[in-house]
Amino acid sequence: MTTPSVAAARPQQSPLITPPEPVLDATQVLGMGQGVVAAYSAFNGKTYSAPSGWTQADSLTAWVPEKGGAAEAFGLWFTSDSASSTAMLALRGTVTAADVSADEHYATTSFTPFSGAAMSPVPQVHGGFWGIYTGTGTGVPQSLQAQVFAWLKAHGIQTLYVTGHSLGGGLAELLALDLAVSQPSLKVITVTFAAPKAGLADSWGTAYARYVTSPATVRVVNQYDVVPTLPPGLNYTQVGVEFDVLFFHKHWDTSTQEATIRHEMDNYLTVLSNALPATPQLFVGSFADGVYSDSNGPLQDTSEAPTADNVARAKVSVKALPQRPVAQPVR
User: Fold this and answer.
1) How many angstroms separate the CA atoms of 121 and 284, rounded?
2) Residues 6+ positions from 134 with CB-CB distance below 8 Å
3) How far apart are CA 328 and CA 331, in angstroms?
4) Class of the CATH domain delimited by 26-247
């Protein structure tokens, strides 16, 4: 397995891409996306399969403190069929009312790495995400944080792929920084999908850029998706490097359904499945929506090239969407 090449930019002769983006390993990133879809299916009690080349090894349950507290299935562990010391952790995003409440818990708190190592400045991170990352309660005697480090040690993992969608992307980023500080000998490749901002620019952003470098985290972002712009109006920041896609159903629709279409993990995966094998890595065309249908069958969504004009239009369009997290619908 290979690491995403972040340094390579799009060729100058291709006017479609602006700004330059990382070039992604299609097999690797699509496998991570499939792992996230499997994590959603596992939570929803649906049948699912491990990504090609991987075998499910375990599951992960976290404590969500909001709404009185609840134990929730949040992730799946997979091990590589070709290397027993290589694993993937895939984390699903917002589904329950407690998850939504955690998303909206914008007040920050101090990040403390598992190792207890001192950090300066101390990263200030999203309080709701941190509560899930470190929470314990009935049925969850160990935090998500502690469970991950124990699992890695017990299985002798040397290379870890960390991925998540939406809220799961925010948790994946907390874990990526924690691993970089607490277990720097571990090779960690982090790719997130539709991740919201997980901490403040002057502390979290600074620390992430300092520690999570080899390779940098890749964030796959639909420029029409509101969630990567959240929390709104605060000194939060995104981290890593961004890989842009652009898809929507109706440009100026401001409904919750439209916001969900633009955020839905199956739609991200469909667009990427078409874009990543291509050169350059983009997809222009229509595709069947992963959730919504009408009398004619699945709604038809549109994927655009990330030109400067399209990105600018997307940024205007996204400002009109509901400024709140969008829960993942049950398929």
Assistant:
1) 43
2) 143, 144, 145
3) 9
4) alpha beta
| Domain positions in the chain | 26-247
Cα 181 from chain centroid (whole Å): 20
Q: Is the pLDDT of residue 273 over 60?
A: yes
Q: Cβ neighbours of residue 270 under 8 Å, at least 6 residues apart?
A: 287, 288, 290
Q: Residue 153 in contact with residue 86, Cβ under 8 Å?
A: no
The CA distances from residue 97 to 37, 198, 219, in Å, are 20, 19, 25
Q: What is the pTM of this model?
A: 0.93
Cα 213 to Cα 117: distance, rounded to the nearest angstrom: 18
Per-residue confidence at 329, pLDDT binned at 50, 70, 90? low
Determine the Cα–Cα distance for residues 201 and 236; give it in Å rounded to an integer: 5
pLDDT digits (tens, 9 = 90+) for 167-206: 999 999 999 999 999 999 999 999 999 999 999 999 999 9
pLDDT score for 234: 84
Amino acid symbol at 156: G
Which strands, in side-by-side order, build the sheet including 218-222? 54-64, 70-80, 86-91, 159-165, 187-193, 218-222, 241-248, 297-304, 285-294
Q: Pairing relation of β-strands 70-80 and 86-91?
A: antiparallel
Count the Cβ atoms, other than its own, within 10 Å of residue 20.
14
In the numeric block, which tokens belong to residue 138?
A: 């009935």
Average pLDDT for 301-322: 92
Mean pLDDT (whole number) for 246-260: 94
**In the block, which residue shows the tokens 């470190």?**
134
